[in-house]
Structure formats: structure tokens, C-alpha cells
Design a protein that fits this description.
alpha+beta; Translation Initiation Factor IF3; Alpha-Beta Plaits; five-stranded mixed beta sheet; elongated; transmembrane helix; SIMPL domain-containing protein; UCP029033; SIMPL/DUF541
Length: about 250
Amino acid sequence: MNKTNNKSITYIIIALILGVSFTVSSYFISNGLINLRSEQKIIRVTGSAKKQIRSDLVKWTGTYSVQAKDLKEAYKQLQNSQKIVKNYFLSKGISEKDLIFSSISTITIYEMLPNGVTSTKIDSYRLVQNVQITSKDVDKITDLSRKSTELINLGVQFESMPPQYYYTKLADLKIEMLSLATKDAVKRAQQIAESTGIKVERLRSASMGVFQITPPYSTEVSDYGINDTSSVDKEITAIVNCEFSIK
């Protein structure tokens, strides 16, 4: 009889342990499901906006140089080249205040030995100077940058660099572009919601992505953003990452 009672008590204890374990497990499982569902009550969407812009500022640089055996003679020749360069651009309607001449760079050239090794004996001096023009007359300076090698016919060893183009109202445009990109994100969120039977409630957060300023129709993208200066006409792309509450 006692043996039977002991077995009954043992079965009861085992049943209680299993019952408690099941209850605890159910609690954690149900909590997990609740958290999972709460995490799913948001939707993350990326919005974008594009706009074509035209540069309103150009910066252009030209380089000229001379080379002579004597340093003083080289400097004299460079001064003469500078005068020719200055008069040339003044004749093209460029204001003197818009002509910025850089400091002079002096390069010492050493004689080359028959075996191809550079010696310590000075052969000549090469002097280099830049002239820079910054203007809002984009078309005029662009045209001038192409024609400036006419200076070669005037005896100047001249090289024209590619112009750099900028848009000076970019700060104001960024605000407009961010607004458009956010509206695009809202539209995309609503489209996703409609197709899945949920409803977008409100915007929880928004973070600005990088701006891409590229030549038109470019597919170039960078995680750090792009600021193209090679083209007059540009395309600006704004990205916004948004998070919405849904129900």
C-alpha cells in the first residue's frame, strides 16, 4: 500500500514539474511572438528625387612656361609671356581683376649623362606660372578655354586645363530636393501598404542620404556622394531613408 502511495506521489510531482515547465515556456514563446509582431509594425522605405541643373559659375586655369640656361634670363622670358597672356585675355573682354596669376614655380633641370643617369650639373631652368579666371559667364569662359591655345601662335608655351563648373545655389536646392525625396518615400510606402493590405499611419523618422551630382544620364554612384565639376549641365539626386508606422 505504501509502495502504491509513493508511486502516486511521484507521478503527481512529475506532472506538476511538466506543467510548470510548459507554462514558463509558453510565456517566453508568447512574449517572443509579441516582440516580433511589434517589430513588424514599421516599414522602412527609401525615397529619391532627381533634378537637372545648369552650372552658374566656372573656374578655369591656364599654364604657361619658359626654359633657359640662365635663371635670370628664364625669369625675363616668363615676364614677357605673362604680359602677352594678360593682353590676350584683356582683348577678349576679360576684366583685369578677374585674372589671377599664381606664384612662379622653378624647376631645375640637370644634365643627362650618356649612360642615362642624371648628373649634378645644372642644364637649365624651367619656370611655370598659372593664370586663373573665375566667372559667372559660363559660356564665354568655356569658349575661351578652347581658344586660348591661340597664345602658342604668339610665342607662349601655353596649356589650357579643363574648366571646372559649379552651382552656387546648391544649399537652397538641397532643401527642396530633400522635401521631394521625402514625398517620394511617402508615396512608395503607401503603394507597398496597399499591395499588402496594411495602412501607413505616420512618419517615425527620416535620415538624409548622400547627394549625387553627376553629368546627365550618368549611372555613377558613390557611398560618399559625388560632386561633378566636369560638366556644365548636371543632374542632382537626393536620397532619404524613412521609417513609417503601420497597422
